[in-house]
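Subject — a protein and its fold
Encoding — discrete vocabulary of local shapes:
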Amino acid sequence: MLLSLAPFVCAQDYKVTNHWKVGGTGGWDYMLSDDAAHRLYIAHNARVEVLDTTSGKIVGAVTGLKSTHGVALNPDGKTGYISDGAGNAIVVFNRSDLSVITKVTAGTNPDGITYEPTTRTVWAFNGRSNNVSVMETGGNTIKSTIALPGKPEFPQPDGQGNVFVNIEDKNEIVKLSATDLKVLDTWSLAGCESPSGMAIDRSGHRLFSVCDGGKMAVTNYDTGKVIALASIGQGPDAAFYDAQRKLAFSSNGGDGTLTVVDASKTSFPTVQSVQTAKRARTMAYNVAKGEAYLCTATFEAAAGGGRPATVPDSFEVLVVSK
């Protein structure tokens, strides 16, 4: 009995344990933790901020961009890639000094981005042209542009030559072949509205898509079938699966929560809803430390019902741990 309750008991202890001040202006998007290098990459307006996850201090930033969305890292430990939405480009940068190496023209408004290890390619999913730009990393050139059935959101590679991506406006997942450079399958996400963030369990062959309406769709990526709908918070945008602890996480900007789901059980129960902050919708996760990072800021009152502006220098990272 104690063994079966262990994941539930452990999960109850998560809380906001630190605030790392970043500052600056403008909005933000996806984040990525490089656990081995103790670095946190944050797409923040026209730059990518880089923080030290040991101290919470700013290391530097990749600058000279237009509107950043996501970051992917090459396993060589030397190179990184940024989707620059307004620049319609994949930005290649040097991880040692954060200098820009080159900018490669992609489709319109590249958003989600990932590195595919079997072909050593970078995949930038273009939110306005409904396609994916595949860049080979040897010469940093686009080798293929693959059409998609709708607006792509976050992708995940399985490490075996397949790439999966949520299609936000069709409530679907698309499976793509990295070797054949084509769509292999399209699966309906029944019960999932506007899927955004996606996490992957490579040993269990499962995908976790976070959706509007307070749901996380769990899909078996061998069959394409939705096997569960877990309960999460409102307004999610990012997800992560911790294989070590068998927990799935969803960051929810609508109600300012981080949902913790026990993925070791077939019922996928929600074991904790951690209060974070409104609009803290994106997240990175450090498996080595067992902690999540979320971004937020203070906002000015919106005039006429428009989108509120951030208060200058209020941008920060929330650290959630035990």
The chain has one helix and 28 strands. Confidence is low (pLDDT under 50) at residues 1-11.
